[in-house]
Amino acid sequence: MTKTPGSIMRAEINEAPARFAAMVQRDLTSALNPLSLDKVRAIYSVARGSSDAAANILSYEIMARLRLPMTSLPPSVFSLGNGVAMEGTLGLILSQSGASSDLVQACRGIAENGGQTLLITNSAASPASALAQATIDIGAGPELAIPATKSVVATIAAGMAFLARLDASYRPACEMAAQAMLAMTTRTIPNKAALEAALSEAGSVFVIGRGCGYGAAQEMALKLKETAAIHAEAYSASEVLHGPLQLASNPLTVLILDTGENRVQDSLNTAETRLRGVGARVFRISPADFGVTDVSPAGAAAILLAALYPVVHDVTLQLGLNPDTPENLAKITDTV
User: Fold this and answer.
1) Which CATH architecture has domain 188-318?
2) 7-183 has which CATH code?
3) One of 39, 150, 225, 331 is an active-site residue; which one?
């Protein structure tokens, strides 16, 4: 227990913008030299929890820029099964600790099945890094609160820097994202108090996004669950209009994460209209609310998370819980 509940998580949230800005502008040429990236025809991410949400964010950005398919593989394909053919692919393993048994086995299994392996981690001296062909150390520094915050945005930054190494024209987007993120240190969500009040009273929460915003929605739903013990589910703005919409028959709070992508606006608008129409309490958050425009979708997703982590922190305290140490969780979860 900490002397002041939430003080550790609060300090790490405050570090997040600088950690993101440093990582997203890093030149990864030497780190990626062991890989033959010109031979990659598809990318498969392997991750769990917040790292998997970061991978989802990155997948939309990477596919849009490189036009290479990128999707996730469950670690159990390698840890419990015999793996899959990986020739011509890059296995992108994302793990803050690099220590979970299933991810370590996945790293080994990808290589054994013909794939290249790249690890994005906050622990360069880890079992997974000993196996990976190449490692990106996100440089987030020690993260002592159980809920991950600064390491998540730094992981997104690492993926963006990786993309800039493959597509030099993406480098300006990384620089703009760094500047926008650093500006966030003096800005807050305009309706923060109302959002916190709604979340504190919520029985169930939908967090909705589209494109890179969907991965951000996954991370925010996870944070509400693991930190504040609030039942929250993430949905794509398209998927929520099918079966999940019926849950709005009961009181429902909805948080829409809008990355500002033009192509997703119609989808988000439709979801917002439908959910408001059935009585849900809807909050829509965009980087434009803080004066941030012209940032890449992945950068916008990271900015939304950095802006919303303080909300989760404060709501958790309002509910009488300690965000530093959720009682049923551990910092490293070892799964097989």
Assistant:
1) 3-Layer(aba) Sandwich (3.40)
2) 3.40.50.10490
3) 331
pTM above 0.85, yes or no: yes
Structure tokens at 73: 């593989």
What per-residue confidence (pLDDT) applies to 84?
96
* Contacts of residue 214, Cβ cutoff 8 Å, sequence gap at least 6: 56, 60, 234, 236, 237
Task: Work out the end-to-end distance of the chain between its first and last CA atoms, rounded to an integer number of angstroms.
Answer: 29
Determine the Cα–Cα distance for residues 201 and 123; give it in Å rounded to an integer.
38
For the chain, give every residue range classified as CATH 3.40.50.10490. 7-183, 188-318
Q: Which residues, 6 or more positions from 118, have their beta carbon under 8 angstroms from its beta carbon?
A: 32, 35, 90, 91, 92, 93, 132, 133, 134, 135, 136, 162
The C-alpha atoms of residue 115 and residue 98 are separated, in whole angstroms, by 19
Model confidence over 273-320: pLDDT tens digits? 999 999 999 999 999 998 898 899 999 999 999 999 999 999 999 999
3 part of the active site: no
